[in-house]
């Protein structure tokens, strides 16, 4: 719906894919592990050019241990600082990160970079509970509400800021 071709979409899933899974899951690059996510980020670093576009969505669950937000993946979990380091120094025209998990606010600082948009579902250092954010974000992107409802700041232009505020 947004101009991304199937070969340019990388999906990492929480479990091994089965024959019962739909085509979206069957096209995944594999199970989300520290190693597969690091390899995927490294491949992006090698392939992205200055005019390219990168959108990263993180769905699933995280937990907070009092110091770090941990992305719950197969094998050892990955904390927000490690996740941020995977994407340091990327050079492409447009970078959008949407971290939709609980305790996602902790990802803001590690992912922050000039020209990069980072949307998180929770407020850093305050909210660590599960969120409805991913469900409403998917709704906003897959079947957007009417233009006037989505233009939250009423400036006559739709932006990711409007999507974020609406979500």
Explain this structure.
The structure is a single chain. This protein has 167 residues and is of the alpha/beta class. The protein is built from seven helices and eight strands. The strands form three sheets. A three-stranded parallel sheet has the order 3-7-8, with no helix packed on it. Strands 4-5-6 form a three-stranded antiparallel sheet. Helix 1 links the parallel strand 1 and strand 2. The protein is globular.
Summary, kept brief:
The protein is α/β, with parallel strands linked by helices. The protein has helices at 23-26, 34-47, 80-86, 108-111, 133-142, 147-150, 160-166; strands at residues 12-13, 30-31, 53-58, 62-64, 69-71, 78-79, 94-99, 116-120.
Q: SSE layout and pairings?
A:
Blueprint: E1 12-13, H1 23-26, E2 30-31, H2 34-47, E3 53-58, E4 62-64, E5 69-71, E6 78-79, H3 80-86, E7 94-99, H4 108-111, E8 116-120, H5 133-142, H6 147-150, H7 160-166
Parallel strand pairs: 1-2, 3-7, 7-8
Antiparallel strand pairs: 4-5, 5-6
Content-based structural category? alpha/beta
From the N-terminal CA to the C-terminal CA, the straight-line distance is: 18 Å
Largest sheet: 3 strands, parallel
Shape: globular
Subunit arrangement of the protein = single chain
The rounded Rg comes to 16 Å
* Succession of helices and strands: EHEHEEEEHEHEHHH
Main-sheet strand order equals 3-7-8
């Amino acid at each position: 719906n947004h101009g991304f071709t199937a070969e340019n979409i990388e999906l990492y899933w929480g479990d091994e894919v089965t024959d019962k899974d739909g085509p979206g899951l069957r096209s995944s690059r594999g199970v989300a592990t520290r190693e597969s996510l690091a390899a995927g980020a490294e491949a992006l670093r090698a392939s992205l050019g200055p005019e390219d576009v990168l959108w990263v969505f993180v769905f699933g669950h995280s937990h907070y241990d009092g110091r770090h937000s941990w992305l719950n993946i197969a094998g050892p979990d990955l904390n927000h600082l490690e996740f941020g380091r995977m994407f340091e120094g990327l050079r492409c025209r447009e970078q959008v990160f949407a971290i939709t998990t609980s305790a996602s606010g902790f990802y803001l600082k590690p992912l922050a970079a000039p020209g990069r948009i980072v949307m998180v579902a929770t407020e850093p250092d305050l909210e660590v509970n599960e969120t409805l954010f991913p469900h409403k974000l998917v709704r906003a992107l897959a079947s957007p509400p009417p233009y006037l409802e989505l233009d939250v700041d009423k400036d006559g232009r739709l932006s990711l800021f409007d999507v974020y505020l609406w979500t």
